[in-house]
């Protein structure tokens, strides 16, 4: 019988923390000061935020000066120059943006600080180069040492390309890669860029360490508006409950739909040959939620007596 390996086992789903890991300020090309950006997210009731200025590291000391309410600020930056962009989340210091991004990933692993997420893979840049390929599948296949990719990036909704990158995610998952899907704003402008995409995390403690530990282990889902209220797994049986989805879709290898359920929940018996399954919860307008993948693992064949 198939069993499933997934990040949601043995977690308390009663205290979700909501946050954005991608926001710019006047310390790079954002329109607002650090203080204004932090105040905006705090007022919207966010639990955590990372200021991700382009190759500009925001230290814990600088963050302490701008913090508001009990918004948890996570230090880091967006590795930007000379190559595909990457978030260095919970960094202790900046790594140089080497054109060979594997060297950046190796530097992060040597520093032993934080996690790395590939940004807006399906952005078309520069303008006119309409290839939806800011970060190529080849790069994502070849790199080691990053934990996931932005399957949704809000700002690309007003630029060339696609804000979504579930196509590349499904291809990588189908090839056996274990990568988490993130949703972030990538906010730059004063209005219209905030509260487009976020991550809902089940952390063991309400601290930067607790949040980053949960992110690194996939104990979260990505959202543009739909709320997941329960994830239950027993053997190969998965139930997803949402507050407000109109349709829930179970997606397996190469993007194939395993099951489509109208309404706010779905129940699936994952077949032993599925490889993996993940769930997309579709709400009204452009509201979605995406779970992390559930991988099929089968217990070893019983040894025949000799
Ligand atoms: Zn970027
Ligand atoms: Zn950015």
Summarize the topology:
Blueprint: E1 3-5, E2 17-23, H1 34-43, E3 48-51, H2 60-66, E4 72-74, E5 76-79, E6 86-89, H3 101-111, E7 115-118, H4 137-142, E8 148-153, H5 166-174, E9 180-184, E10 198-201, H6 208-216, E11 220-223, E12 228-234, E13 237-242, E14 247-251, E15 257-262, E16 265-269, E17 276-282, E18 288-290, E19 294-297
Parallel strand pairs: 2-3, 3-4, 7-8, 8-9
Antiparallel strand pairs: 1-19, 2-10, 5-6, 6-7, 10-11, 11-18, 12-13, 13-16, 14-15, 14-17, 17-18, 17-19
List keywords for this structure.
TIM Barrel; Immunoglobulin-like; alpha+beta; eleven-stranded mixed β-sheet; five-stranded mixed β-sheet; 306 residues; binds zinc ion
Notes on the structure:
Strand 5 (76-79) and strand 6 (86-89) form a beta hairpin. The mean pLDDT is 95. The protein has helices at 34-43, 60-66, 101-111, 137-142, 166-174, 208-216; strands at residues 3-5, 17-23, 48-51, 72-74, 76-79, 86-89, 115-118, 148-153, 180-184, 198-201, 220-223, 228-234, 237-242, 247-251, 257-262, 265-269, 276-282, 288-290, 294-297. The chain has two domains: 1-14 and 223-299, Immunoglobulin-like, CATH 2.60.40; 17-201, Metal-dependent hydrolases (TIM Barrel, Alpha-Beta Barrel), CATH 3.20.20.140. Strands 1, 2, 3, 4, 10, 11, 14, 15, 17, 18 and 19 form an eleven-stranded mixed sheet that branches. Strands 5-6-7-8-9 form a five-stranded mixed sheet. The chain is 17% helix and 30% strand. The protein is an alpha+beta fold and 306 residues long. Bound molecules: zinc ion (2 copies). Residues 22, 24, 52, 78, 186 line the site of one zinc ion (ZN).
